[in-house]
Give the backbone structure.
Amino acid sequence: QVQLQESGPGLVKPSETLSLTCTVSGGSISSYYWSWIRQPPGKGLEWIGYIYYSGSTNYNPSLKSRVTISVDTSKNQFSLKLSSVTAADTAVYYCARTQPKDYYYYMDVWGKGTTVTVSS
Amino acid sequence: DIQMTQSPSSLSASVGDRVTITCRASQSISSYLNWYQQKPGKAPKLLIYAASSLQSGVPSRFSGSGSGTDFTLTISSLQPEDFATYYCQQSYSKSTFGPGTKVDIK
């Protein structure tokens, strides 16, 4: 079955850019949307944005100025870049497959998550 | 932006209890509402999509209802493995999660 695995630095300095990659295995990245979600320590879930395999994107308005999500279909991967990070961006970052069934979008397969800490 | 609220924020229940969690949207979202379960240290798990459709493999004791602005998640008979935090999520306009409802042991 489809599995997702997040990868990237666990520690990022303030003002720098956070970069994460999600590798999709056991299935094709085509015909789905792919999302990033984060969860600060002890807090709830925050949707960051998603990308369609063709490259179209949709971002959380509160993060839009700092977020870029891209896809590499040849590697079955999609990526997140979040610029100008601060301590408030410290969180567990999840990637998830997003089903567009009948225009009802829902996240049915999730990665295990990766912890990113913003600190000097 | 669409805001989501959940009530209660936490509840204590016993095995076998019927549990109901409410989610409310700040504007009508039709049936674009999903429910997830999250256990400590784990990724969320999809339970219900499109307000009332049960995700494959999810026990039938979970059910969802509602449309417009008001939705409910019901667990008909709480099992030990159901103690977790539950989140609603709207996908009508971009996406927003509710703040979560923690279900713990009474």
Observations:
- DSSP finds no helices and eleven strands in chain A.
- Residues 23 and 77 of chain A are 5 Å apart (CA to CA).
